[in-house]
Design goal:
The complex is a heterodimer of chains A (122) and B (669). A 5-stranded parallel sheet of chain A has the order 2-1-3-4-5, sandwiched between helices. The radius of gyration of chain A is 13 Å and the shape is globular. In chain A, strand 1, helix 1 and strand 2 form a beta-alpha-beta unit. Helices cover 43% and strands 20% of the residues of chain A. In chain A, helix 1 crosses helix 5 and helix 2 packs parallel to helix 3. Helix content of chain B is 40%, strand content 23%. The two termini of chain B are 65 Å apart. The chains are: A alpha/beta (122), B alpha+beta (669). At the A-B interface, helix 1, strand 4, strand 5 and helix 5 of A face helix 1, helix 2 and helix 6 of B.
Chain lengths: 122, 669
């Protein structure tokens, strides 16, 4: 069965790109437009890996990661955060929240697949 | 995996989104009051810049990345309170959005903006952002392919990987890391299980294992450490180079057979890893040229096929097989080339929610727009020409269709009105539906208006409800009591219909009084190629679009009757259908005048069914449409021309115009 990925981003383009790329690599993809939306989407649908943006309205990436880690279903699920920030503080904050890894934007589709495969091979 | 077309599609989406974001940024910046600016507002503006920057890199738009990076830095400084959003600062930000706008537009046109574009603004932005903007460390967190070193030196490393107990808490999986590591070269991995406690003390959520790895690789220490990048704080890691072993890939004599294999395998892997550039940008002109060339090729192929058709099969079997294969490949090539021009309708759908929102606010209505099938693809030309009619129809639904909340509640409907917009492929065409749950078309009002304007003969009592609904497509018709600045911009549904029919499409309405109405637009997927029926009249060939043909029949003698003062009619299963003679219309000699010895092609036109008398059906063929407009004024009854297999030019009939042409001809006679 195909691994299911959740992409969380308030940018439609990013969501579509992540989604399209991962689908091409054989993942099933669920899309959510912010942290709140993500929690709604995963409630109905257990996913195997989460790729989340950090800067989002309603519920940001850090809050989402913390919420996921508090959920016994998602305690060990790989979570990748997308970041364009140049400083290490975001990275640290993400790690503290429980993120598995990070991908710096801008990235190309090959790189995305490579990193996602690294934490959740399909 | 990701093809050029896909990336081009996303780029289009990126450009559209960026333009939307820029508009939002501008709006928010204009709203920004230096006195009361709060973080929420600044955050929203920051997010816009951030998203534009985020996507730009993926499409190689580094000039946008670089510019927005500085813009973002200033916004970030404002967010953190280091810089105040003074009037001047906001002015600079607004100017900066203009620059980004120009850059995005340039990207849209596939050109590169002047290198000094926005240089002055950039400097001002940097001045304002008092602290030097953080420089993006390129390597930071990126999983760059390790630069392949020139020589093939292999080093043996011994690696100790001892995760902390809480490794699992971040969702990391040691097994995957070890697999990743093994990909770098020849790895021997030994697990150290000494720290695993007795079962009663074992916490399954903790990591007690550690590993000793011997790795032979040509990769650097950095590349090895990169594998553990996500867990570097959650483990003890040591990487030490042992001995240096020189293996030269191109001199396999040095190696044993097994290591040669390893080296070869590695090379293959490196090759696979060489980033094949995922996208190239192509000038639209070039694509059009390509499409044209393929069109010419299709014609040439048809010519070759025609010339070889009479050749004896047994003597020329190879040639004929080749011609068959050519036809097959042509068809495929044509499809691929056409698909290059295909775009999702999303680009036009995406501007509609804003329009609905604006109308809702303006008219005090509560309207929800539900969109589906945005990814349905259709030719770029169709997209370009569809935008205006679609916008108009949505405006129409929101303005005339959906009622005010009070009226809706009074009618027992939810206060919020809904407009459904959908697109899908159906039988080689794209079908777009706009459906609302509003009041529907008020037939009484429509009829009254039509009578007032003299659009209907008599008192209109002979009209069926459907005919009344269709009056809205009549030229110069507008039912709004007062011409509003929303849908009454001098563009009526008649223009919508004309635009859509101009593309070879159809628009229909289904009216459910007091429950809403549904408009259905059906369009060909491409405007460049048409499925046509070739018909012969005298020595001339004409093309009738297949989509308009209902059936073809040969009447018995006397079945076509002449009605005094009118056209000839044919009785088809009780229905009297007007018949037109192409030879009369176009003055063709040597054509069959007696219908019972000719054929009648029944077609569906805007004005109803019609029979076209032709001598013979020559065949069905995909034809490449050549516009006449470049060389001649529009000719009524003719939509274009094409070149047939025998090299002859043939005209494509516009069935909607034919009947009018006949009418005039007869009056003149």
């Amino acid at each position: 069965m195909a691994k299911k990925a959740l992409t969380v981003d308030d940018s439609r383009t990013m969501r579509e790109m992540v989604s399209f790329t991962l689908k091409g690599a054989g993942y099933e993809v669920v899309e959510a437009e912010d942290g709140k939306d993500a929690l709604v989407k995963i409630a109905a649908n257990k996913v195997d890996v989460v790729i989340t943006d950090l800067n989002m309205p309603n519920m940001n990436g850090f809050e989402l990661i913390r919420a996921l880690r508090a959920d016994s279903n998602y305690k060990f699920t790989p979570i990748l955060m997308l970041t364009t920030e140049g400083d290490g503080s975001k990275k640290e904050e993400g790690k503290a929240a429980g993120a598995t890894g990070w991908i710096v934007k801008p990235f190309n589709p090959e790189k995305l697949v490579e990193v996602v495969k690294k934490v959740c091979p399909c | 995996m990701t093809t050029n077309t896909d990336l081009e599609r996303f780029k289009q989406s990126y450009i559209n989104e960026s333009l939307e974001l820029l508009a939002e940024m501008e709006e928010r910046l204009l709203d920004l009051d230096p006195e009361t600016a709060d973080n929420e507002q600044l955050n929203a503006i920051f997010r816009c810049a951030h998203s534009i920057k985020g996507g730009s890199g993926a499409f190689g738009l580094t000039y946008i990345t670089n510019f927005t990076h500085v813009l973002e830095a200033l916004l970030d400084a404002m967010r953190e309170g280091k810089v105040l959003p003074t009037r001047d600062a906001v002015d600079i930000l607004l100017k900066a959005t203009d620059i980004v706008h120009q850059m995005v537009r340039a990207a849209q046109e596939g050109t590169t903006p002047a290198t000094n574009l926005g240089k002055d603004i950039l400097e001002k932005l940097q001045q304002y952002a008092s602290h030097t903007p953080t420089t993006e460390t390129a390597a930071y967190g990126l999983f760059d392919d390790t630069p392949v070193t020139g020589n093939a030196d292999h080093t043996t490393y011994s690696i100790v990987f001892a995760p902390h107990l809480n490794l699992f808490a971040t969702g990391n999986e040691p097994l995957l890391l070890l697999q990743e590591l093994a990909k770098l070269g020849d790895a021997t991995i030994v697990a150290d299980t000494t720290k695993v406690p007795n079962l009663d003390a074992l916490d399954p959520e903790q990591c007690y294992l550690s590993w000793n790895i011997t790795l032979v690789t040509d990769k650097s220490v950095a590349a090895i450490k990169e594998v553990f990048e996500f867990v570097e704080d959650a483990c003890d890691l040591s990487v030490t180079a042992q001995e240096k072993e020189i293996r030269v890939a191109r001199a396999p004599t040095v190696d044993t057979q097994s290591t040669t294999e390893t080296v070869v395998k590695k090379d293959a892997q490196n090759e696979a890893k060489t980033p094949a550039s995922g996208t190239i940008r192509v000038d639209l002109e070039k694509v059009d040229k390509l499409v044209n060339m393929v069109g010419e090729l299709v014609i040439t192929e048809a010519m070759v096929r025609m010339q070889t058709r009479t050749l004896p099969q047994e003597q020329f079997s190879d040639l004929l097989r080749g011609v068959d294969a050519l036809a097959h490949h042509m068809r495929e090539l044509q499809e691929v080339v056409m698909s290059v021009r295909m775009q999702p309708v999303k680009s036009i759908f995406s501007r509609l929610p804003r329009i609905v929102r604006d109308i809702s606010t303006q008219l005090g209505k509560d309207i929800r727009l539900v969109v589906s099938g945005e990814s349905t693809e259709v030719d770029k030309t169709v997209i370009e020409q569809l935008g205006d009619p679609l916008t108009h129809m949505i405006r129409n639904s929101a303005d005339h269709g959906i009622e005010t909340p009070e009226k809706r509640l009074a009618a027992g409907k939810p206060a919020q009105g809904t407009i459904h917009l959908s697109a899908e492929h159906r039988g080689g065409r794209i079908v777009i539906e706009i459906s609302d749950d509003g009041a529907g078309i008020n037939r009484e009002k429509v009829l009254k208006k039509a009578l007032e304007k003299g659009l209907v003969a008599g008192d209109g009592s002979s009209l069926s409800p459907q005919e009344i609904d269709n009056l809205i497509f009549h030229a110069g018709f507008s039912t709004a009591d007062v011409v509003s600045n929303i849908s009454g911009r001098g563009v009526g549904m008649d223009v919508v219909r004309r635009n859509i029919e101009g593309m070879g499409g159809l628009v229909q309405v289904v009216n459910r009084p007091s429950q809403g109405s549904t408009f259905t637009v059906s369009l060909p997927l491409t405007l460049a190629i048409l499925d046509g029926m070739i018909v012969r009249v005298g020595n001339e060939n004409y093309i009738i679009p297949i989509t308009s043909i209902i059936e073809t029949l040969r009447p018995k003698q006397g079945e076509v009757r002449h009605v005094e003062g009118h056209k000839d009619v044919l009785n088809v299963r009780g229905e009297f259908i007007p018949v037109i003679y192409l030879y009369q219309l176009f003055g063709i000699q040597n054509a069959e005048a007696e219908p019972s010895r000719a054929l009648i092609v029944l077609v569906e036109s805007r004005k109803g069914k019609m029979g076209i008398v032709v001598d013979e059906l020559v065949g069905q063929q995909q034809v490449v449409i050549k516009s006449l407009s470049a060389n001649a004024d529009p000719v009524e009854g003719i939509s274009g021309a094409t070149i047939l297999g025998d090299g002859k030019v043939s005209l494509i009939l516009e069935v909607n115009d034919l009947q009018g042409l006949v009418g005039r001809e007869q009056k003149a006679a």
